[in-house]
Every structure is written in structure tokens, then in C-alpha cells.
Design goal:
By secondary structure, this protein is of the alpha/beta class. It is built from twelve helices and ten strands. It has an eight-stranded parallel beta sheet. Strands 8-9 form a two-stranded antiparallel ribbon.
Length: 331
């Protein structure tokens, strides 16, 4: 891996600036990236929330350090030839931390990252603060001035190493404390004015109508981070869930990428849970049923067989390990 992965950053810039929308599945591990690339997608996304679940076994709690983020990212980048975008949470703290974070991300071979405008550390920091069921509900927003300074520091870092590294200015103002739709738009417009900020990202607009309107308010490439649209009460409980717009609707509205935050792992988590629960009741018959179901699927829906084989290791063994000594035939 080169010190700076300029081929990947150029490719990601192309994805964001060419006509149309691109689907970018998300995950947390090298295997998720390998599956994404093999399935024919052009880029991969490392989710911060999902990384907390897979690497720490806990929900999106802000406990992962930036060092852990970029170390995991480096392992992922080495396994694929497609650009990799990573969550950078708050950038690690202040503008000074964001400056270093971007440099470490570039050195890790990432093609881009998003930095959000909430307090560091994320989440609840005082006893009286109400936390929503979704981590991003009720987070305290930092000021626009502080967020702008942080993004400017991130841009300065990328210009020193790779001007094509994609900086995504993200606002959580729709659901953050003291925020709302108008505040989110205000912040999105402020961030897009920063030279070197390439893309704007809105988090958790509540309806598709809000999301589509927000896309029209921003001139730079823009997208949303949400798997579904819903309104919530003060405790974060879902009051109403709305139908998801189709990919065609999102593209017509001007969204540049569809970020499938847990596309490679969400269904897998559910399937794993069902297998574990069912196995307690039915034992090995569950595995037999699962194998039979897989065998009935069309070949394009079955996991490619070569992903489970070890030809690479066998070739390495044959090439580099000593041959076993010959034994003399007995007379």
C-alpha cells in the first residue's frame, strides 16, 4: 500500500462528481469489503456505529478511539481495490485532533471520511441529559464556528498529503439538541462554502420530503445517512415509520450516493441470531435445512465457492515450504 492511495481518492472524487447516484454498501471488517467488491460495487463504507458493535460488542457509544478506527481501516483497505470511505465521528476531538485524524486516514489508504458537528465525546455527558434510542438523537451540537474550524483543519491536512482525499462535512443538526430542519440546512450551507470540503452529508432527516428538499438546498454533492425515515418522541421511540423511497426516486432528487450503512451486515446479524436460537431447539437439523436452502438458490445468489477455498495458501506452501524427504522403497 503506498503512503498515499491516490488512485482510490481520484476514483472516489469521480464517483461523487459524475452524473447519477452510486450505491455504497457499508460494513466493518475486511471480509465485508471483500464481499462488497466481489458483488460488483464500486466503493465501500466503514460504519462507526457498526464498528462499535463488531469490534467492541457494544452499540454506537463513542468508545472507539481514532487510532482503533484507522488501524481497522488499514486492514480493510489492504484487502480490496475499490475506494474506502470511513466514519470519523467527531474527528477525535478539536480541530487539532481532526487535522491529525485526516492525515492518519490518508496514510491508512482511505479515500475519504466524514466528520460530524457534535460534541466530543459523543452522547450523554451530564446526568440530566436525555439520550434517544438512536445514538444521534439528543446529542449536543457544537457551534457552527467550531464545526467550520474543524473542517478547515481537516482540509489543511488533506492538502498537505492528497488534495483528492474526500472531506465530507456532516451535520447531525436535524435531531441534535437545539437543532431542527432549518438548523441542519443552515449548517449544510455553511460547510459547503469551505473550499476543500467536497461533499455534504445530512444525518437522520425525518421524512423523505425533508431529505429531498435538503438535497435541493446544497450545490455540492450531497447525500443522506439513514436507512429509513421516522419521527420519534422525546425519548427516541419511533412514533411513525415512513416508506423508503426507491433508488430511482433518490437519484432523481439529486442524491449522489446511497449509503447502505449496514447493507453487508444487518441481514447477516439477524440470520445469525435466528440460527443460534433455532439450533437450541432443533440441533443439527437446522444446519441441514440451511444447506438445503442454499443449494436451491440460483448460483448468482450463492456465496462464490472460491471465496471459501485456500488456493492462495496452497500455492504459497508449494512454492516456499520445503518438500518432504523422499522415503526409500523397501526391497
Amino acid at each position: 500500500m503506498p503512503l498515499v492511495n491516490k488512485e482510490a481518492t481520484k476514483k472516489l472524487q469521480e464517483i461523487f462528481h459524475r452524473p447519477g447516484m452510486t450505491i455504497v454498501p457499508g460494513g466493518t471488517l475486511p471480509w465485508h469489503a471483500v464481499l462488497t467488491e466481489r458483488a460488483g460495487y464500486e466503493a465501500f463504507y466503514i460504519s462507526g456505529g457498526m464498528s462499535h458493535r463488531w469490534l467492541l460488542g457494544k452499540p454506537d457509544s463513542g468508545q472507539l478511539t481514532m487510532t482503533e478506527f484507522w488501524q481497522n481501516a488499514k486492514r480493510i483497505v489492504k484487502t480490496v481495490d475499490i475506494p474506502v470511505i470511513s466514519d470519523a465521528d467527531t474527528g477525535g476531538g478539536t480541530a487539532v485532533n481532526a487535522y491529525r485524524t485526516v492525515k492518519e486516514y490518508i496514510w491508512a489508504g482511505l479515500a475519504g471520511c466524514h466528520i460530524e458537528d457534535v460534541q466530543h465525546p459523543k452522547g450523554v455527558t451530564t446526568k440530566g441529559q436525555v439520550a434517544g434510542r438512536v445514538m444521534h438523537d439528543r446529542e449536543r451540537l457544537i457551534s457552527i464556528e467550531e464545526a467550520v474550524g474543524k473542517l478547515k483543519a481537516a482540509v489543511a491536512a488533506k492538502r498537505e498529503l492528497d488534495r483528492n482525499f474526500v472531506i465530507i462535512g456532516r451535520t447531525d443538526a436535524r435531531n441534535g439538541r437545539g437543532g431542527g430542519y432549518e438548523e441542519a440546512i443552515k449548517r449544510g450551507k455553511a460547510y459547503e462554502k469551505i473550499p476543500g470540503v467536497d461533499v455534504i452529508m445530512f444525518d437522520h432527516m425525518q421524512t423523505w420530503e425533508e431529505a429531498a428538499q435538503a438535497l435541493q438546498e446544497i450545490k455540492k454533492p450531497c447525500f443522506h445517512a439513514v436507512a429509513f425515515f421516522a419521527t420519534r418522541d422525546a425519548d427516541g421511540n419511533i412514533v411513525q415509520r415512513y416508506p423508503m423511497p426507491s433508488l430511482e426516486e433518490r437519484e432523481r432528487a439529486g442524491e449522489k450516493i446511497y449509503l447502505g450503512v449496514a447493507l453487508s451486515i444487518g441481514p447477516a446479524n439477524q440470520a445469525a441470531w435466528e440460527m443460534l436460537v433455532d439450533f437450541k431447539e432443533r440441533g443439527t437439523q437446522v444446519i441441514e435445512d440451511w444447506r438445503n436452502d442454499v443449494d436451491k438458490k440460483p448460483m448468482e445468489m450463492q456465496l462464490p465457492a472460491d471465496l471459501g477455498r485456500r488456493e492462495f495458501l496452497l500455492q504459497m506452501y508449494d512454492k516456499y515450504l520445503p518438500k518432504p524427504p523422499r522415503t526409500r522403497a523397501r526391497r
